[in-house]
Amino acid sequence: MSARTTGQVRVVGTGLLGTSIGLGLTSLDVDVVLDDVSPSTLALAVDYGAGRRAAEGDAPAIVVVAVPPDVVARVVAEELARFPEALVTDVASVKAGPLAALQAAGAPVARYLGSHPMAGRERSGPIAARADLFLGRPWVIAPHEASTAEQAVLLESLAFELGAIPVRLPAERHDDAVAVVSHAPQLVSSLLAARLVDAPDHATDLAGQGLRDTTRIAASDPALWVQILSANAARVLPVLSDLRDDLDALLGALADPAAPGAQRALADVLAAGNDGVARIPGKHGVDLRTTTLTVLIDDRPGQLARLLTEIGELGVNLEDMRLEHSPGAPIGIVEVSVLPEAAGGLEADLERRGWRVA
C-alpha cells in the first residue's frame, strides 16, 4: 500500500503516541525522523522500527510534537523556528492552552495546527506503542484564524493514513468536549478504584466485569494525567461540580430510602444513566439497541475462537463482546451483543451446538 502522506515526517517525542505514529507511517514507507530528549527512549523507538534518527539535511513537511502537555508550546515554538517550511502539529489532549501560549510568544502560528488523536492505552512509552493504535478512532484537528484549509487537509491525510477518522473542531470546543468525555471520567474512575485500596480481600474476590469496566482507566499514568488535568482544569471543574451536586442528591435519597420521593430520585439517576449511555455512538456511529447473550466456555485454548467462528457460520454479526473469567472456576464468561432480532435464533442455535447459554 502506498502512502498518501508525501514528504518527510518528523516526530518529536517517542512515547506511546509518537512511537505509534512512527510505526504506522513507516509501515507505509513514509520517511519518519524521530527525536526525543531521552536517548534511551529514542533508541527504543528506533529499535522498534518507528523511524530513524535525525540527520543533517532533514527537511520535514510535517512535524508532529508528541511531548508532555507542560512543554508542548515550548517545543512547538522551537520546531517552528527550526523548520520554517514545515507544518507543525501537536497531539496533546488540550488544545486551547498551547495555541494561546504560542500566540502570546509571537510564534508563527500560521504554520501551526493543533490536533489530538482520541486514542491511548493505560501503558505508556515506546514499548507500549502499536501501529494500529489509531484505527477507527477520532483524530481532532483544531483550526484557528491563522490556519488554512490546505493545512487541515494535510493533517487529515496523515490521520487517514493511520486509520483514524479526522474531525475538525476549534480548540475551545475540543477542550470543552474532552473535559466531559475523557478528563472527568478519568478522575471518576480513579476515585472509584481508590475505594478498593482498603477493601477487604473477600470484597475484591467478588469483583466482576462491572468493576473492571468502570476502573480500567484508573491504571493510567498519574504524572501525565496531573499535567492534562492542570491544563484543562477550568473546563473539568464545572463537570465535577455538577457531578458533586448529583452525588449530594443521591446521598440524600440513600440516607432515607423510605422518605417520600427517595425512590423516584434513585430511579431518575439510573434512568439518566441509561439515556447518557444511549448517546455514546455504537460501532456504526449510531445508537443501536442490542441484546446480550451470556455464553459459558471452558477456560482452555481455542474455545473463544471456536465460539466466534460458529457465530459467524450462523450468519450473525457481533455488535460487541466482553470476556471475563469466573473467580475460582475454570470457566470463561463471554457476553456477546447482537441485534435483538437475531438473539432468539442465535441462542437456540448455540445450544443445539452444545454451548451453555446462561
From TrEMBL:
Any Pfam family the entry gives: PDH_N
| GO MF annotation terms | NAD+ binding; prephenate dehydrogenase (NAD+) activity; prephenate dehydrogenase (NADP+) activity
Question: Which EC class is the enzyme in?
Answer: oxidoreductase
Known catalytic reactions: prephenate + NAD(+) = 3-(4-hydroxyphenyl)pyruvate + CO2 + NADH
Tell me yes or no: is Amino-acid biosynthesis among this UniProt entry's keywords. yes
Give the enzyme's EC designation.
1.3.1.12
Domain (ACT) ranges: 292-358
GO biological process, any: tyrosine biosynthetic process
Print the keywords alphabetically.
Answer: Amino-acid biosynthesis, Aromatic amino acid biosynthesis, NAD, Oxidoreductase, Tyrosine biosynthesis
Keyword Cell wall biogenesis/degradation listed: no
> Superkingdom of the source?
Bacteria
Pathway-wise, it operates in: Amino-acid biosynthesis; L-tyrosine biosynthesis; (4-hydroxyphenyl)pyruvate from prephenate (NAD(+) route): step 1/1
Q: Domain Prephenate/arogenate dehydrogenase, which positions?
A: 7-284
| Family per similarity comment | Belongs to the prephenate/arogenate dehydrogenase family.
Provide the protein name: Prephenate dehydrogenase
